[in-house]
């Protein structure tokens, strides 16, 4: 590694080069309020790497895992991509990037990886614009963030039919607007437009007290889709004014920060999050084998694990880790992921695991969907 690049990389990653190894990087936050999700992804990828290496590697080559902390910041996301893209020697070349967890500068970062001929697998959900991007070498297995709207509406029909719903979103975060509109569309399609009202954080200038009053005037259920701090403040005001308010939050938007702020008051809150897949028939046998080794990918770790195993299948089918040969498998080819057989169209997995509804009970996530 050139000394100038190494000086930059030391701020971004933990790198342990092994001779005759294929380099794979997982890009995710390791510090800060999103570290929980970043560490889950990294742990899931590590479990898959260990499993693959124990079984002969990729086409006979072991995998060398590189952990990159992009801090979920635009400048770090771009810098990390640029640093990896310029390395072309066998020793330093990165063949695969899993992530990043955050979608900072998504289009630009995707272009940089494509120019550097680095395959990229995105294991987390995306907004519509990001999902539609068809860049060379880009595979997406996490579906759309707004898919959680389906899980919410189906749960609402079974559990809370006839109740009025307030959906709170942040117009500065495109994915929350998309989810809010998709929930609204579900109600409209079922002639329930009078049951739902949308509220935008941007219209209240941080006046959470007033926002809570307006929401509770006509609604019994609140779906809060904002950043961690806004979500925590609004939910606290809702509970102060009406303790029995039914609240739903997105785990990844709320993050660990929200649950720390809420403390014991998080009890009973509903959480929308990706399926854990622990009961998936397609994953049962593999999961049992991992458990016998004392390993189990948890939370988003399942999706990091899936991303790594997908790349193994891609490389085996292409009989190579060559960028162009793997990129050629983006359309029409079928692979096995923890949630079943998956066909790709323009690099997008046609099937994904979807969201489930959980509830905080005794301080733990309990699936109720």
Mind explaining what this structure looks like?
The chain has 369 residues and is of the alpha/beta class. The protein has two domains: 3-145 and 279-355, Rossmann fold, CATH 3.40.50.2300; 146-275 and 357-367, 3-Layer(aba) Sandwich (Rossmann fold), CATH 3.40.50. 41% of the residues lie in helices and 21% in strands. It has 13 helices and 16 strands. The protein has helices at 3-9, 35-54, 74-85, 106-115, 128-132, 148-159, 174-189, 208-218, 228-241, 251-262, 284-292, 301-318, 323-327, and strands at 13-14, 21-27, 62-68, 94-98, 119-122, 138-140, 165-169, 196-200, 221-225, 246-250, 270-274, 334-337, 340-345, 348-349, 355-361, 364-367. The strands form three sheets. Strands 8-7-9-10-11-15-16 form a seven-stranded mixed beta sheet, with helices on both faces. The termini are far apart.
What strand order characterises the main sheet?
8-7-9-10-11-15-16
Looking at the structure, the CATH topology of the largest domain is Rossmann fold
Task: Calculate the mean pLDDT score and round it.
Answer: 92
| H/E element sequence | HEEHEHEHEHEHEHEHEHEHEHHHEEEEE
Tell me the CATH superfamily of the largest domain: Response regulator
Percentage of residues assigned to helices: 40-55%
Question: In what range is the share of β-strand residues?
Answer: 15-25%
**Count of DSSP-assigned helices:** 13
Number of domains as seen in the coordinates: 2
Strand tally is 16
CATH architecture tag of the largest domain:
3-Layer(aba) Sandwich
Structural class call reads alpha/beta
Index terms:
disordered N terminus, single chain, six-stranded mixed β-sheet, elongated, 369 residues, Rossmann fold, 41% helix, alpha/beta, 2 domains
């Amino acid at each position: 590694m050139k000394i100038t690049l190494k000086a930059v990389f030391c701020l971004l990653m933990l790198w342990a080069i092994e001779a005759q190894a294929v380099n794979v990087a997982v890009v995710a936050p390791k510090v800060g309020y999103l570290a929980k999700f970043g560490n889950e992804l990294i742990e899931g990828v590590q479990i898959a790497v260990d499993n693959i290496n124990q079984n002969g590697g990729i086409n006979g080559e072991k995998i060398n895992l590189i952990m990159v902390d992009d801090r979920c910041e635009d400048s770090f996301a771009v810098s990390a991509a640029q640093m990896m893209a310029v390395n072309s020697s066998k020793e330093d070349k990165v063949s695969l990037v899993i992530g990043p967890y955050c979608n900072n500068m998504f289009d630009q970062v995707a272009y940089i990886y494509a120019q550097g001929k680095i395959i990229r697998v995105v294991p987390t959900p995306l907004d519509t614009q990001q999902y539609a991007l068809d860049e060379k070498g880009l595979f997406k297995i996490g579906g759309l963030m707004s898919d959680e709207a389906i899980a919410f509406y189906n749960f609402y029909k079974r559990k809370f039919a006839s109740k009025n719903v307030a959906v709170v979103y942040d117009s500065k975060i495109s994915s929350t607007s998309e989810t809010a509109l998709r929930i609204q569309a579900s109600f409209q399609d079922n002639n329930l437009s009078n049951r739902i009202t949308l509220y935008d954080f941007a219209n209240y200038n941080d006046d959470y007290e007033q926002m809570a009053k307006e929401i509770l005037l006509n609604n019994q259920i609140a779906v809060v889709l904002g950043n961690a701090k806004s979500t925590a403040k609004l939910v606290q005001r809702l509970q102060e004014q009406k303790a029995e308010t039914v609240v739903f939050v997105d785990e990844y938007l709320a993050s660990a920060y929200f649950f720390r702020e809420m403390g014991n008051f998080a009890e009973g809150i509903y959480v929308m999050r990706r399926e854990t897949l622990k009961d998936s028939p397609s994953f049962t046998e593999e999961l049992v084998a991992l458990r016998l080794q004392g390993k189990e990918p948890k939370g988003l770790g399942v999706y990091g694990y899936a991303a790594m195993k997908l790349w193994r299948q891609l490389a085996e089918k292409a009989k190579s880790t060559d960028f162009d040969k793997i990129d050629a498998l983006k359309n029409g080819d079928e692979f096995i992921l923890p949630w079943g057989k998956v066909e790709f169209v323009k690099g997008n997995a046609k099937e994904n695991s979807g969201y489930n509804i959980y509830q905080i009970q005794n301080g733990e996530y309990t699936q109720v969907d």
